[in-house]
Amino acid sequence: MMKTLLKVDEINTYIDQFHILQNVSFEVKTGEVTVLLGRNGAGKTTTLRTIMGLNSASSGSVVYKDEDITKQNTHHIARKGIGYVPEDQGIFADLTVGENMRVAMQKEDDATKERMDWVLNMFPDLKKFWNKAGGQLSGGQKQMLSIARAYINENDLLLIDEPSKGLAPIIVEKVMESIQEMKEKTTIVLVEQNFYMASSIGDSFYILDDGMTVHSGKMNELKDDEVLKKKYLGIA
Amino acid sequence: MDLIFSLTLNGLATGMLFFLLAAGLTLIFGLMDVLNFAHGGLFAWGAFTGVWIYGLSGNFFVGILGAIVAGLVLGAITEYLIIKPVYGNHIQQILITLGFMLVLTEMLKVVYGPNQRAAQPPEYLDGSFTIGDVTIIKYRLFIILMGIIIFALTSYVLKKTKIGLIVRAGVMNKEMVQALGINIRLIFLAVFMVGSAMAALGGFLFAPYSGVIYAEIGLDYGIFAFIVVVIGGMGSLSGSLMAALLVGLAQAYMQYYVPSLALAVNMLLMAAVLLFRPQGLFSVKGVSTK
Question: Sorted alphabetically, which PANTHER family does this protein's record hold (chain B) (predicted)?
Fold first, then answer.
């Protein structure tokens, strides 16, 4: 039986006066891709931000590798081995691709070099535009850079927020391919509205609706559940 | 010709002093989103501490070192005690730093006495020399050189070192820097200390330039730092240099030709920038260290 790597237990998160997450709970098993699904505004991004400590949970807990990280600072959480690819990609626009990667690198050892080789092999555009400012990259290249930055460290868990958002289908395929390959080496929590992508990569799913976890299960079960897909994801 | 050259040299030297004062402020605002109205106080403390240590040691460069150390220590204290509790709240920042500016000014009188202090450049930097018809005052040239050295050093650190890259990344996206495992709090503190040290260095270099220092120089000159930062673009180091030189030159020329409008011209320039290019003349996006 696979070990639980991350356990989110009944977290409640407020942004200003708005109660965004309401007792959200889910578990992530080591080696799996867990997909968070739901309509816009369901609370998926806030869930990832709460795990990273970028939003504070007012109650509930986030346990990573059996350690409660709920109240820890974001940089401590990241140093425990959690990589984050935000929805807006978080590229440092005035820094070059190379500088973006350098800022992200926590170590400069052989293992990091190996991952860098993998990343540049997977995304040759990053090598091609190594000295180009991040802000001048296309949307797809920014997404590749954001994923590369999260992958460059020895992270055991990657939180990836809507990697296909606003990208051309051919780029989505490339991003999917990269996540498929990363899946072999690390555990992933993926927020994704593109159901084709989510169902191709995901092992298990949780559906969020109005800030609550309303359904969960194995991805192959959801693929065949037309009622659930129509009700919560708007897929006919 | 001599007059034009003399005014230009004077303007550039004044501009470099404004740059030293504004450089820390622009980084502090750009990275930390902190409005620090106490910044001028560090300029004044640098002036008094540097002059005192210079007097004790008899060595001008030990005075420079003393001013820098005073800036680092006061910067750390200011960040920890005054700024840290009001991160994210501009109104509170303005109120508390304005109050702290007054405290720093009054504390100067307690520590160093209420009287003005005279300051002279060391013998080897005193006086002038001539090239053709042009007279060059040595100390003004020294200030310009110091400004260039500090700008080059800061630019090198920001552009070529990892800590510099992190600072620049932090100016653009603090959250992402933290999500990459970097303790932005420590970076904040370091930037605040370095920015304060630059202001203190500016204060000490200002002392022999002006010939006399008094406790309120921070209040009088702090305003120029804000003018420079607004004109140059918040968070932009090279923007601050260009704006500081512009303000320094405008100040020098106006003081000679229309003294009553010297400050007004810079104020008008700032107002025009705020109206027509609020992100600053030399900043692409408002927060840039390019």
Answer: ABC TRANSPORTER ATP-BINDING PROTEIN, BRANCHED-CHAIN AMINO ACID TRANSPORT SYSTEM PERMEASE PROTEIN LIVH
**In Å, what is the CA distance from B269 to each residue of A184, B147, B255, B273?**
59, 23, 16, 6
Q: Which of B180, B184, B186 to mutate to test the interface with A (most CBs of A within 10 A)?
A: B180
Is A99 close to B289, i.e. CB distance below 8 A? no
Q: Which residue of A has its CA nearest to B167?
A: A103
What is this model's ipTM?
0.92
- Domains of chain B and any CATH numbers: 2-276 (1.10.3470)
DSSP β-bridge partners for residue B4? none
Q: Tell me the sheet residues that pair with A4.
A: A29
Residue B30 contacts A where some CB pair is shorter than 8 Å:
no
Q: How far is A87 from chain B (nearest CA, A)?
A: 11
* Residue in B174, B181, B175 with CA at minimum distance from that of residue A80: B181
Which domains does chain A carry? 4-91+155-233 (3.40.50.300)
Give the closest of B162, B182, B285 to A75, CB-based.
Answer: B182
d(CA B285, CA B234): 9
Give the mean model confidence (pLDDT) for residues A192-217.
90
pTM of the model: 0.83
Q: How far is Cα B83 from Cα B88, in angstroms, rounded to an integer?
A: 10
